[in-house]
Structure formats: C-alpha cells, structure tokens
Design a protein that fits this description.
Elements lengths: L1 E3 L5 E14 L2 E12 L6 E7 L12 H12 L3 E5 L12 H11 L13 H19 L1 H4 L1 E10 L1 H11 L14 E4 L16 E5 L9 H10 L3 E5 L16 H18 L2
Parallel strand pairs: 4-5, 4-6, 6-7, 7-8, 8-9
Antiparallel strand pairs: 1-2, 2-3, 3-5
Length: 267
C-alpha cells in the first residue's frame, strides 16, 4: 500500500491491488487509487470512478481525477479511481460473460458504436465489478459506509452503466449500486435497462460526436424521474463542467446535490 502526500483535508492510498485478470493472454495486476476525507468520524460513502479512453487508452492517474478526488473528499465522499484492462479480447473474458456475449449482442442498439460495446467494454465491466467487490469487502479498513455510487467519463460512464445493468444478464452477483454519474456516456442495451436499479445523473453535449446523446436520451425516456439529464453545447467531451469557464464549485456541486438526494432517500 502506497500513501502519498495530499492536501490537509484528505489522505490518498495509491496503487492498491484489487485483483488480477488476463489481458491479451497476459496475467496482470489491477490497481486503484483511494482518497479518503480525514475529518470523517463516521464511515463515509464512496464514489468509484472509471476513466475514459475508448477502452484502448486512459489511466486512473489522469490529472482530472486528482481534481475529482479533492472535490469529492471535501464534500465528505471517499473517491476511488480504478484502472482496468485495455484492448481486451473475447478470450480474456470470464466464462459467464464469454458464453453469453453473442446473446447480449442481440440487445445492442444498432446506433451504438461497436468498438464501445465489444469484448474490451465487457472486460472493463468485469474489472469494475471486481473493484467494487474488493472495496466493499475492505470497507471496514478504510472507514467506508458501504453506500456506493459509480461514475465515469465517456467509456468509463459506459462501464458504470454496464456494471449496474448487465451483471444480472450474465448471472453475476454484485454489491448494491446506489446511483450513476455519467459524463458523456450511454448504455448500449436499452432493453436491459432497469429504471429502479440505480438513478442516473448525466451530463452530455447534444453535438458530441464520440458518444451520441441519443443513447442517453433513450435511457432518459425509459427512466423518467430516475434519470437527470443535463445538456450543454459548450461541454467538452468527458468533462464535468457545462462549459470550460464554469466554476468547478458549480460543476461538482451539481453532482453532489444529486448524490446527497440519493443518500437522503437511502442513507
């Protein structure tokens, strides 16, 4: 366990190994960074964040996640940023997922980018589930309450949806997920969406050419009050701000209000 210097209000544990997996035939370690508010007397809620990069690139150490960790811990949340397998292949998947992958493809929205809905995306889902389970199993050691929401940017947001809504399809068990924060994300399988499972706060640019907003609008139409969609044609893909000049306090405050409402209803 590596502990690095952080601002006075939180402590960081970096490069925690949460599991191992096969990626392109090689056994690799899976790691996460965990930031915890120092002043908390009682166990704290957690948001587990998943980076973007089209399932080909990206890393838990992206500078934006350092900013995320400062804001979330200041608001009283623990913040975990995870790495996961990139460019994974079908042969890397677990048996339950690999065996039902063809059946899943029949539910895929034809407008969803195929490179964001294949084996690499499902490997990321598997790893996110492993990380979520590891964090829940170790919550006592890190003063975590057991209340968990998922968040992510772009491919990371897609992974958050997959982790919440596809595990049942594959017969996988997972800890409860109380909510999802989707930044420029979407869900490829609207027929498998379950509105009551995890409320969603989504931020998306209507002109986004990487992940079409139509994909999150379908979920909004199905979810009704369970989906809170915020749009801005000045939002940069994968960024939490409505526009580059929006103050961070307002951008993160929007997310915290959503999470706090969930906790008020489900402490």
């Amino acid at each position: 366990m590596t502990q690095k210097k952080a601002p006075d209000h939180y402590i960081r544990h970096d490069d925690l190994e949460y599991g191992r997996a096969v990626c392109r035939g090689q056994d690799i370690a899976l790691r996460l960074d965990l930031s915890l508010p120092k002043a908390a007397r009682n166990p704290v809620p957690l948001i587990m964040w998943i980076h973007g990069g089209g399932f080909r690139n990206g890393h838990k150490d992206w500078a934006g996640h350092m900013t995320d960790s400062r804001w979330f811990t200041k608001a009283g949340y623990a913040f975990a940023s995870i790495d996961y397998r990139l460019k994974a292949e079908r042969s890397d998947l677990s048996d339950p997922v690999r065996q039902r992958m063809t059946a899943l493809e029949k539910h895929c929205d034809p407008e969803f980018r195929k490179d964001l809905a294949g084996a690499a995306a499902l490997a990321a889902m598997e790893d996110a589930l492993t990380a979520l389970t590891w964090l829940q199993d170790n919550r006592a050691g890190f003063n975590l309450s057991g209340w968990v929401a998922l968040g992510g940017n772009s491919a990371g947001a897609i992974t958050a949806f997959n982790t919440a809504y596809l595990t049942g399809f594959f017969g996988l068990s997972r800890p409860a997920i109380r909510g999802i924060v989707s930044i420029s994300g979407g869900f490829a399988y609207p027929a498998l969406y379950a509105p009551g499972l995890a409320p969603v706060h989504a931020l998306h640019n209507p002109t986004d050419d990487r992940v079409d907003i139509a994909l999150i609008r379908r979920i909004e139409a199905l979810g009704g009050d369970a989906v809170e969609l915020v749009t801005s044609d000045r939002q940069l893909h994968g960024r939490v701000r409505l526009a580059p000049d929006e103050p961070p306090r307002e951008a993160y405050g929007r997310i915290f209000r959503f999470l706090d409402r969930l906790r008020d209803n489900d402490p």
